[in-house]
Write a structure and sequence with these properties.
It is built from nine helices and nine strands. The protein has 271 residues and is of the alpha/beta class. The relative contact order is 0.12.
Length: 271
């Protein structure tokens, strides 16, 4: 597998048109909207760049051998090199959340596991997971079909999504060497009645659809421990505006605030 650092430093060279398009787009947009991001002086060497996220700041975590090992584990779980471009920060932030939540009472829950790439990388970064007393619950249909826009559910009529899980057996194989991992198969939020976690320290939501995400968060909110973290994978991502609006409404109703992260993720804390 490609290491995280090698991928990040070569991205601009392999995708010059994407980086140039980003610069031109920023320069042409109203300066008040972007608070000066579009100034041409930003045409410098990026420390990290994708077509949707770029920074000139310190990204030393990419050189960390522990992170590189976790990242390579995540890419291996995905089974395709497509995941090896531009998601380093997303995994880095998921690992940060998980490590913090190791000190909070409760289990870990992921809604929308897919092939298991995120949590495979996270568990690789938790050397004391086996003795923590926590369980990771992976919740998904574990089917390969795409999502129907009207219902928010997977449907064979939509066709196969090339990045979704092939089967639950394939995902089980990914976590075969991990302890304290439980699989909850079925449609969300209905299948949460089979999920045995009575208290939750870390919740990762990645269902790619607003309705089941918000309904599931409503269902699990009482089970979240005080100080538990909720990481929203698609919160501010381009094309996920429905999820953004729905989660903001949830946050307003519950008196909390979602942190918008440059990667497109959102983060909230259970009071």
């Amino acid at each position: 597998m490609l290491s995280a650092r090698r991928e990040s430093v070569t991205f601009a060279k392999r995708n010059p048109f994407g980086i140039l398009a980003l610069l031109i787009r920023n320069a042409l947009h109203n300066r008040s909207e972007y608070r000066g991001v579009g100034k041409w002086r930003t045409f410098t060497v990026w420390s990290y760049a994708t077509t949707r996220f770029a920074t000139q700041h310190n990204v030393g975590f990419l050189d960390n051998p522990d992170f590189q090992r976790s990242y390579d584990r995540a890419v291996a779980a995905a089974g395709d090199d497509w995941w090896n471009v531009g998601l380093h920060f997303r995994l880095h932030q998921a690992i940060w959340c998980a490590r913090h939540c190791m000190t909070i009472p409760g289990d870990f829950v992921e809604l929308g596991t897919g092939r298991g790439m995120t949590m495979a990388g996270v568990l690789e970064a938790l050397p004391n997971w086996a003795t923590s007393g926590k369980t990771l619950y992976l919740c998904d249909t574990f089917e390969p079909f795409g999502i129907e826009s009207s219902s928010g559910q997977q449907s064979a009529e939509v066709g196969v999504n090339p990045i979704y899980a092939h089967s639950i057996d394939a995902v089980r194989a990914t976590f075969a060497d991990c302890t304290h991992v439980a699989f909850v198969q079925g449609l969300l939020p209905d299948s949460l009645t089979d999920m045995q976690a009575s208290s939750i320290a870390f919740l990762h939501i990645d269902l790619n659809s607003a309705a089941p995400e918000v309904a599931s968060l409503h269902a699990l909110w009482p089970r979240l421990s005080t100080g538990a973290l909720v990481l929203l994978d698609d919160y501010a991502y381009v094309g996920s505006e429905d999820q953004y609006a729905a989660m903001n409404e949830f946050a307003h109703t519950h008196g909390v605030m979602i942190l918008t992260m440059p990667s497109g993720q959102g983060l909230l804390i259970k009071p």
